[in-house]
Amino acid sequence: MEACGSVFRPAALFCTNNDNLNIENGDIATELNSSNMLWCLSGNIALTHRILFGIHFDTDRLTFKPFVPEALAATRSLTGFPYRGAKLNITVSGYGSEIKSFKVNGKEQEPFIAANKAKGTIDIEIVMADNKIKPLKVNRVANLNAPLTPIARLDGTTLVWNPIEYIGSYAIVKDGKRIATTHATTFDASEPGEYQVIGIASDGTEGFASEPLSTRHRLYVKVDPVGNDKTSVITLPVEVPADGYYFISLDYANGNGPVNTENKCAIRTLSVDGNRAGILVLPQRGKDNWEEYGWSNTVKVYLTQGAHELTIDFRPENENMNITTNHAVIRGLRLEAAN
Predict the structure, then answer these.
(1) pTM of the full predicted structure?
(2) What is the reported pLDDT for 231?
(3) CB-based contacts of 76: which residues, under 8 Å, 6+ apart?
(4) How many domains does the chain have?
(5) Other C-beta atoms within 10 Å of 273: how many?
(6) How do residues 145-178 score in pLDDT, each as one tens digit?
């Protein structure tokens, strides 16, 4: 099961993949529900593959470490599982956390399949040792309240944030790494980078990091705000000041749905000089809220100094769960130096 707020998302409830379950009474008649949700389906698949069959992907091999509680003891088969150039037919019988027998095409061996030998059809038989699994302990801790998240801004190259009551100190994060601790509410951010602030209570409890703010060199390319659907293609010429890595993101609006549900995220492919560079994700920002603009994810690319052509278009791999609605308004593109 997958916990989510005040509900649980069961991997398979009553032989379905129902979205929500009320934790108080087990009722599936919740405000939002579906019997065909990707996160429930993927949770069910992950539980089956990674736990009951114990499949683990390593760089040079596929290893097996099944974990089968006694209450789930049975013989299970997974057929046609693709791995490199092979199709695996896997059978696990018994229960426990230890393997008694591991056979590949009828021959006993160590519990793994080497990547360079994964060819054709491979039959794998796993017999568990029926060993008792020791109960796991629950680590009980006192309930704590995290400090409020600082609201930060840049005043030139100085990072400034609102003071928080009952705070012990603030941690400064630059490019994902902690670089300082302070009791002040300002910090010199003149060294180019992406900065965040974390509030730390006097007992050491930490809050969430603030919105990241960058002091790196940026180039903004304006686009006449226009609805971008599956047939739209945006081509933008850019002049890069120096060789190096750059982060590319879109300034967009998506009023096709609320921020907390639905499936109308716009997805686009970014290409540089005709070569695919990555995927840009533009989630909905509020139902009918087409005045609320924000930034997509970033795609990191290496660019040489001089002129380049950036293209944003829709491709088959950009389909979302909704299928019908995959639309946003794009008004600009941001190019930010990585260092």
Answers:
(1) 0.62
(2) 87
(3) 52, 53, 91, 92, 93
(4) 3
(5) 12
(6) 889 999 999 999 999 999 988 888 999 999 999 9
Residue 270 near residue 310 (C-beta atoms within 8 A): yes
Instruction: Report the alpha-carbon angle 172-178-184, nearest 5.
Output: 25
* pLDDT reported for residue 6: 34
Residue 272 included in any domain: yes
CA-closest candidate to residue 88, choices 75, 76, 104, 72 = 104
Do residues 65 and 87 touch, judged by C-beta distance below 8 A? no
CATH code at position 119? 2.60.420.10
79 and 194 assigned to the same domain:
no
Please give the Cα distance from 54 to 187 (Å, whole number).
Answer: 48
Q: What is the CATH number of the domain that holds 330?
A: 2.60.120.260
Side chain identity at residue 297, one-letter code: N
CB 199 within 8 A of CB 148: yes
Residues 210-228 as b or e (16 or more Cβ within 10 Å = b)? beebbbeeeeeeebeeeeb
The one-character DSSP state at 25 is T
Considering the domain architecture, whether residues 21 and 102 belong to the same structural domain is answered as yes
Q: Which amino acid is at 198?
A: I
Identify whether residues 269 and 254 lie together within a single domain.
yes
Choice among 3-12, 138-147, 153-162 with the minimum mean pLDDT: 3-12
262-320 residue pLDDT tens: 899 999 999 999 999 999 999 999 999 999 999 999 999 999 999 999 999 999 999 99
Reference 234, options 309, 290, 336, 291; nearest CA is: 309
pLDDT at residue 187 tops 90: yes
Beta strands at 213-214 and 21-22: parallel, antiparallel or unpaired:
unpaired
271: nearest Cα among 310, 230, 315, 301? 310
